[in-house]
Amino acid sequence: MIAVILKLVCANVLCGDTYLILSLAGRWTSEEHNLFLQGLKLYNKQWKLIADLVKTRTVVQIRTHAQKYFQKLEKGRMMSTTSVKKDDVVSSQCLLLNVSS
C-alpha cells in the first residue's frame, strides 16, 4: 500500500504550521528550474540550500537534476565545438577556388 502511495505525483509534508507539496516524480516546471538556476548561482553545489530554495524538490532530486543539467551543458559545448557550419564550408570552398585560379 505504501509503495502505491509513494508512486503518486505529490505528497504532503508538514513544515512548521504549513504543508508543502513535494513533487516526487515528473518533469520540472520552468519555475522550479529557474529557482534551481538561482540557487546554483547563490550556493554553488550546496544541494541542501538549493533544495530549501526550490522547496518542491528533495535534495536527491536537486542533485539528479544538476547532474543532468551539467551533462546537457557539456553536450552543448561538445556539439558547438565539433559542428561545421554551412558558411564555413562555403568559405573554405571559395578559398580553394581562389587558390587554384
Briefly say what this structure is.
With 101 residues, this protein is mainly alpha-helical. It has helices at 2-6, 30-43, 47-54, 59-82, 86-100; strands spanning 10-15, 18-23.
Structural descriptors:
single chain, 101 residues, elongated, disordered N terminus, Arc Repressor Mutant, subunit A, two-stranded antiparallel sheet, mainly alpha
The ordered H/E elements are: HEEHHHH
CATH topology: Arc Repressor Mutant, subunit A
Mean pLDDT value = 74
- CATH homolog superfamily: Homeodomain-like
- Taken as a percent bin, the fraction of beta residues is 5-15%
Quickly count the domains: 1
Largest sheet: 2 strands, antiparallel
Q: What is the CATH top level name?
A: Mainly Alpha
Q: How many β-strands, per DSSP?
A: 2
- Count of discrete alpha- or pi-helical segments spanning 4 or more residues: 5
Description:
- It is a single chain.
- The chain is mainly alpha-helical and 101 residues long.
- It has one domain: Orthogonal Bundle (Arc Repressor Mutant, subunit A), CATH 1.10.10.
- The protein has five helices and two strands.
- It has helices spanning 2-6, 30-43, 47-54, 59-82, 86-100; strands at 10-15, 18-23.
- It has a two-stranded antiparallel ribbon with strand order 1-2.
- Helix 2 (30-43) runs antiparallel to helix 3 and helix 3 packs across helix 4.
- Residues 1-12 and 89-101 have low confidence and may be disordered.
